[in-house]
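Q: What does the assembly look like in three dimensions?
Context provided by user:
Components: two
Sequences:
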Amino acid sequence: EVQLQESGPGLVKPSQSLSLTCSVTGYSITSNYWGWIRKFPGNKMEWMGYISYSGSTSYNPSLKSRISITRDTSKNQFFLQLNSVTTEDTATYYCARCLAAIWYFDFWGPGTMVTVSS
Amino acid sequence: DVVLTQTPPTLLATIGQSVSISCRSSQSLLHSNGNTYLNWLLQRTGQSPQPLIYLVSKLESGVPNRFSGSGSGTDFTLKISGVEAEDLGVYYCMQFTHYPWTFGGGTKLELK
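A: Here is the predicted structure of the complete assembly.
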């Protein structure tokens, strides 16, 4: 079965960069699409971006100048970097698989809470 | 960006009651290829979101058939025919037709 697991620091200082890793088992990231989604305190959810099976990326324009999604196919991992974070980036971050053509996130990681605070 | 408006924001139900959640889009979600990429997810407390329905009405594998989705264009509905305790949590609609992909604001289903 496909499994995803997020990892990274739980606390980041304002103006620094947030870096997370999504480790995937049971499926190759060279197929389909792999996304990052975050949930803010409260219920608001935001799609941040994805990296495709070929390595191409798409980002939410609200983040475009600060976000980068990359991958290491040898380790079957993909990564999120978000620069110049503020307290408004405090959220639970999820990685998920998106099925091409059908277009929905069918497998999700458990999520990792990131707090931006000095 | 496409705005998805979910109502009600909170839904109180008894076990066995049938309930519906509405998701209204600021733009038609009909893609030029003829598909409508509107999905429903459930997030139980302390868990990650799980998919329930994709392409408006197709049930994800393993999801009980008391869940059903319907709608077209800009108006969509998720129905639960007989709420069970395991159905409690926050429901989201999400669209993939237009970039950026967007979520509804969520509907919290609680026991009355």
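Follow-up: The longest strand of chain A covers residues 18-25.
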